Amino acid sequence: MNSLTSEILKQLVNSGNEPISGQQIADQLKISRTAVWKHIKQLEDDGYEIISVKKKGYLLHKRMDSLHPAMLDSMTSTERVGRKIHYFDSCPTTQSIAHEEAANGAVDGTVVISEEQTAGKGRLARNWSSTKGKGIWMSIILRPDIPPQLAPQFTLVAAVAITRAIADETGVTPSIKWPNDLLINGRKCTGILTELQAEADRVQSIILGIGVNVNQTTEDFPDELKSIATSLKIEIGNDVDRLVLTAKIFEYIEKYTDLYIEQGFRPLKILWESYSDTLGKRIRASMVNGEIIGKAIGITEEGVLQIQTDDGKIHGIYSADIFI
Ligand code: BTN
């Protein structure tokens, strides 16, 4: 979408239920009324329903189901997260774009979001299915002043933030499977991929890749995922507003990263533990170099999972697939 069209969309959103006159838009953007009309036509062609109210102006009647920054901006009250958004209709993966943006100096809280990913990346080099317009596929660039070994904590902070956002929006609270899978009724609705740009002693940026399955039906998932993945729509039985949920995720990520900076990991660890479906259970952790079976007894201050095997030994797990 051209930047003037997007600016007009923003004005329509901001004027809410009050029509805004073509003249007012033209004056503010220093363009002619004919140009305003052309951009309004463009928005209509894109799927926005705009009513022309006689002698009063334009009114946005129905918004499209899109995560366009002009729409997100009007719903977000954060100071950093989501204030700068790079939006794509389609891209291979938001992670690589976010890495480039971070390397080029993107500010803390910058978001890269796409309606579709053609080469979505999951953890452990897996693919991430990212159907067009059905989920939230985004990468958030964070710049906390912490040493690299504390970065895994951010995966857990993000898991708690998204859990809270989903609970607020749907009334269903997912459980967290260590470190980063959000499950509803045992099936995965959200994955988080945390990547780093760091020097030896300091993090330059954390790229928080977030994939939320929102409005897919079972048919939207590839066969191999049908029995293990789910969407919010499948679980609650109706469509979920992706815009509202995305804005909520921005808010909770900002709130909990602020809490982390002020009070450290402890309060977030307590929250994470309260949502965990891993702790206290007998689990199998499958890693590249073998597997460990035992009881998940806790996470450390660094976010490392601790498993106690039958011989009483405690093992710290940094990265693994967990089977319960
Ligand atoms: C997982 O394996 O559970 C992590 C999945 C992370 C998916 C998200 S979608 C947005 C961002 N872009 C990607 O390619 N991956 C992450």
TrEMBL record:
CDD domains attached here?
BPL, HTH_ARSR
* UniProt catalytic activity: biotin + L-lysyl-[protein] + ATP = N(6)-biotinyl-L-lysyl-[protein] + AMP + diphosphate + H(+)
Q: Which GO terms describe its molecular function?
A: biotin--[biotin carboxyl-carrier protein] ligase activity
Q: Does the keyword Iron apply?
A: no
* EC number(s) reported in the record: 6.3.4.15
Q: Which UniProt keywords apply?
A: ATP-binding, Biotin, DNA-binding, Ligase, Nucleotide-binding, Repressor, Transcription, Transcription regulation
Residues annotated as domain BPL/LPL catalytic: 80-261
- List, alphabetically, the HAMAP family matched: Bifunct_BirA
Q: State the similarity comment.
A: Belongs to the biotin--protein ligase family.
Instruction: Report the protein name in the record.
Output: Bifunctional ligase/repressor BirA
Naturally occurring in which organism (per UniProt): Chungangia koreensis
Instruction: Report which gene this protein is encoded by.
Output: birA
